[in-house]
């Protein structure tokens, strides 16, 4: 071998080895990437299927608890229910996932086979029809041809053409602004406060009584405070006496302090001017009605019209879009670029709010849950604007307009003063958004965390100074109380002696067992009037006694696992069982005894109409399948399925924005009652917007983000219409 040949090989061989190494490295990286993708897909589908299994399980155990049974009675029929529900929910999930990926819900091969079968059936039926009834058929055809030639038929055709042409234009024109939507909601709902006036239950009467006692104290009237025969408002929904300050005070945070003061003050003014609370109830219901109109129309405007995009011409044109080409971004990192909502989307959403009894009755129902739900709708719409105006990594964050920021803060405050658990939801959401949208951390701190800290901190200050009595912690132990009470009812001998000794200063176990009602934990907590069963020793229990509660509860659960499981499932299964009727529906507040029998003149205002409209809603809700749309758990189940589909489609940023919906489901599970419809109002009201968002983000196989007209100029975003908050 010559020297030149050796030199040539020496110079060419090293250039080949790096290429081969690069190819091997790339192949290895590809295999690792595919393995990670497979593992991620398995994890996502596992999480989604767990949600489906939970829904199927709740459907299967429903018959147990409808008739007072136990999960130990599981049999063949329940297995059939479970498998049937599992198949249906799984098909719905797969259909949503296919839609989310831009795929057909039904494969083309299945559609082709169905078309062939349908064509064969049609041919067979048509042949038989012509053979058997050809003469009548030809006679009807001749009559139809003659009718279509008449002037009346031509007039009907022209009218139908005009309706088809102008109705979409009218709908789009009337719903393209916040004012138009507000007028539609106001006019469509106006019959509710006019004909029903007000709707309420026991809570507001307790709030009014509580404020009255506090007002009497402030004006110098001496009233009983403690003692065995003294029965004050804090004893109705009992607050343990160890929480009371030494100096007399009658305001509590049982039903949220701000609402108690506001409702009580309006009722006191009503008594002063009219001699009864009725006028105050009507005023409060009317104010809530207006608040509902405002919140729903403002949120509809954001979801339907995307006002932050702006529109120089004012026409319903397509939104400006920019493809998401950011390296490393997963599908779902940014919302899909879409136009403003079309006619059908607008019509369905508006009809839901105008016709669904849950929304209609909530507008005037004076309980804290509807107020929280409408405030949540308002907050949810502004959060959607934040979600849709998010920028890619490295870009300058788009600031929220001042008016919208003020509305965001106001909606958070309205949520906080109407529901105690809003504090936890806002705190958790703040943490989530600080992680997923760090560029606008000031917005989230100002709009979410600061109101929570200020309002919650103000309450803590008032409680620490003895001006207000804090709510009893027993209120958050509904599941534990139900488990102990069910064991005391079904197997009192199964309670360990050590556990019974620890519970003796807190509860009367005999009364606890007698008070047990699987749908509601309030009887076990001794909530109600003075003649109630005293199972909870709120007069004598101490903070030290409560320290042993958890250990006693755990001993009882370990000794009676099946009964404890029954108590847990019986208190929450209805929220996820499509066939379960609500324990308390919203029509209850329309015809409650407190409205029909304990008012001065409201009870005489259209009493028959009030009864008829409530009965119509109840009868509608009892119709199988068709009545599901009037139940809150229908929307809870669908929301969970949409969330599972979002997990499979990897829409992580949308999931981060939807996380409060999952937290609200946790609130339902831990609430004192099963399938209590007012606890499901927030999810019910925003479901249409969740479905619209999923449809928008599914209008293509790739994900894009929306950019406003100002993006190309590089200037700050200007919200041209969202100022109407």
- Give the N-to-C terminal Cα separation: 88 Å
How many helices?
26
Bin the helical content: 55-70%
Pairing-aware structural class of the strands and helices? mainly alpha
Order of strands, main sheet, comes to 1-2
The number of strands is: 2
Q: Which consecutive residue ranges, at least 5 long each, have pLDDT under 50?
A: 7-16, 311-337, 701-725
Strand content: under 5%
The coarse overall form would be globular
**Major beta sheet summary:** 2 strands, antiparallel
Mean pLDDT: 84
Say what oligomer this is. Answer: single chain
**Structural Rg:** 31 Å
The ordered string of helix (H) and strand (E) elements is: HHHHHHHHHEHHHHHHHHHHHHHHHHHE
Describe the overall structure.
The chain is mainly alpha-helical and 725 residues long. It has a domain at 146-175. It is built from 26 helices and two strands. Strands 1-2 form a two-stranded antiparallel sheet. It is globular and about 85 Å long.
């Amino acid at each position: 071998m010559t020297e030149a040949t050796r030199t040539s090989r020496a110079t060419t061989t090293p250039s080949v080895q790096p290429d081969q190494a690069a190819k091997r490295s790339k192949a290895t990286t590809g295999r690792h990437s595919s393995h990670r993708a497979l593992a991620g897909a398995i994890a996502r589908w596992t999480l989604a299927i767990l949600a489906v299994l939970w829904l199927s399980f709740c459907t299967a155990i429903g018959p147990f608890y409808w008739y007072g049974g136990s999960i130990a009675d599981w049999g063949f029929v329940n297995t059939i229910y479970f498998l049937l529900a599992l198949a249906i929910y799984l098909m719905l999930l797969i259909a949503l996932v296919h839609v989310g990926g831009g795929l057909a819900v039904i494969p083309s091969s299945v559609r082709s086979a169905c078309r062939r079968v349908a064509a064969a059936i049609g041919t067979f039926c048509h042949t038989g029809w012509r053979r058997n009834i050809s003469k009548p058929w030809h006679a009807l055809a001749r009559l139809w041809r003659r009718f279509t030639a008449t002037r009346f038929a031509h007039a009907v055709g022209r009218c139908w053409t005009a309706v088809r042409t102008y109705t979409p234009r009218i709908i789009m024109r009337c719903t393209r602004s916040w004012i138009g939507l507000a007028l539609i909601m106001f006019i469509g709902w106006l019959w509710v406060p006019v004909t029903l006036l007000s709707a309420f239950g026991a809570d507001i009467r307790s709030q009014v009584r509580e404020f009255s006692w506090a007002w009497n104290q402030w004006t110098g009237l001496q009233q009983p405070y403690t003692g065995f025969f003294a029965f004050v408002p804090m004893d109705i929904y009992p607050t343990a006496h160890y929480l009371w300050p030494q100096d007399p005070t009658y305001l509590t945070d049982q039903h949220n302090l701000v609402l108690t003061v506001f409702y009580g003050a309006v009722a006191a003014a009503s008594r002063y001017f009219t001699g009864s609370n009725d006028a105050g109830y009507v005023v409060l219901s009317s104010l809530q009605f207006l608040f509902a109109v405002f919140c729903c129309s403002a949120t509809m405007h954001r979801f339907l019209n995307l006002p932050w995009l702006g529109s120089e011409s004012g026409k319903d044109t397509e939104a400006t879009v920019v493809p998401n080409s950011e390296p490393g971004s997963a599908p779902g990192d940014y919302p899909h670029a879409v136009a403003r909502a079309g006619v059908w989307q607008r019509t369905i959403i508006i009809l839901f709010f105008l016709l669904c009894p849950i929304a209609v009755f909530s507008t005037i129902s004076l309980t804290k849950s509807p107020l929280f739900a409408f405030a949540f709708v308002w907050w949810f719409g502004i959060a959607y604007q934040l979600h849709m105006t998010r920028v890619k990594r490295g870009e300058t964050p788009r600031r929220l307009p001042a008016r919208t920021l003020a509305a965001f803060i106001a909606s958070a405050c309205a949520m906080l003063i109407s529901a105690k658990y809003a504090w936890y939801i806002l705190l958790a959401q703040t943490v989530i958004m600080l992680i997923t949208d760090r560029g606008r951390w000031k917005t989230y701190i100002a709009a979410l965390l600061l109101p929570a800290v200020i309002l919650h901190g103000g309450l803590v200050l008032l409680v620490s100074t003895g001006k207000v009595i804090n709510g009893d912690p027993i209120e958050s132990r509904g599941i534990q109380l139900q488990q102990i009470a069910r064991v005391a009812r079904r197997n009192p001998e199964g309670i360990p002696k050590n556990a019974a000794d620890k519970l003796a200063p807190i509860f009367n176990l005999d009364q606890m067992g007698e008070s047990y009602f699987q749908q509601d934990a309030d009887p076990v907590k001794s909530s109600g009037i003075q003649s109630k069963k005293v199972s909870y020793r709120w007069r004598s229990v101490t903070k030290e006694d409560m320290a042993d509660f958890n250990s006693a509860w755990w001993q009882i659960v370990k000794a009676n696992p099946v009964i404890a499981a029954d108590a847990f499932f019986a208190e929450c299964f209805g929220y996820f069982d499509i066939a379960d009727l609500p324990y308390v529906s919203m029509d209850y507040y329309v015809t409650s005894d407190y409205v029909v029998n304990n008012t001065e003149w409201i009870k005489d205002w259209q009493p028959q109409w009030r009864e008829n409209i409530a009965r119509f809603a109840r009868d509608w809700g009892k119709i199988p399948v068709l009545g599901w749309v009037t139940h809150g758990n229908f929307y809870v189940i669908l929301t969970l399925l949409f969330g599972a589909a979002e997990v499979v489609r990897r829409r992580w940023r949308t999931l981060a924005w939807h996380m409060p919906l999952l937290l609200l489901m946790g609130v339902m599970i831990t609430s004192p009652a099963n399938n209590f419809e007012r606890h499901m109002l927030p999810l019910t009201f925003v479901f249409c917007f969740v479905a619209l968002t999923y449809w928008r983000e599914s209008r293509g196989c790739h994900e894009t983000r929306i950019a406003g007209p100002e993006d190309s100029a590089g200037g700050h975003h200007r919200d041209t219409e969202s100022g109407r908050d």
